[in-house]
Every structure is written in C-alpha cells, then in structure tokens.
# Entry
Amino acid sequence: MSRQILEITLRLPDGQVLNGRGRNLPATIERVYNQALHPTPRRYVTLMEHFKSGYVNKGEHRYQGTFHARFAQRGSNPASPEGIVVVEVREPK
# Structure
C-alpha cells in the first residue's frame, strides 16, 4: 500500500497563502515554502506539534489537521524563527 497524497496549505505571517501536494509532509512543506521564496537561501522546517499516533482507530488520519511550523536556515538558532507558519493538511478530493 502506498502512502496517501496530502494537500498542504501554508499560511504565512504576512497573509500569503501557499499550496502544494505530496506524500512526505515535512519535505513537501519545505519545498512549497522554498519555491515561493526562491531567491532567498534554503529554509528548513521544524514542526511544533507531534503527529497523532497513526491508524489506531478506524477513520483516524495521522497527518490531517492544522499544525504550526517554524523555518530557519541551516546552522542558525531555531529558537529565533522568521515567524510561525500555519500548516493545514487534508486529503485531496
């Protein structure tokens, strides 16, 4: 069984909304964010919440929901982010 495709929406602190699709949640969040801010140096994501346990109950989806993420440059202090991004994850229809 292959992993499910996720539809991801990023809401930046300045009001900009970015969309993307992928199977790997952290990698897709980084790709969408970095492509939108192309000329800037590459940023890496840190998710602030833990995922759900998985498929414990029927109908439970581990990655779906709203999360908060921070972005930082490699080697920089992750405690001083550029802002907190709201990440909404759902299944495509």
Remarks:
- Residues 72 and 80 are 8 Å apart (CA to CA).
- The chain has a mean pLDDT of 82.
- The two ends are 19 Å apart (CA to CA).
- The first helix runs from residue 25 to 36.
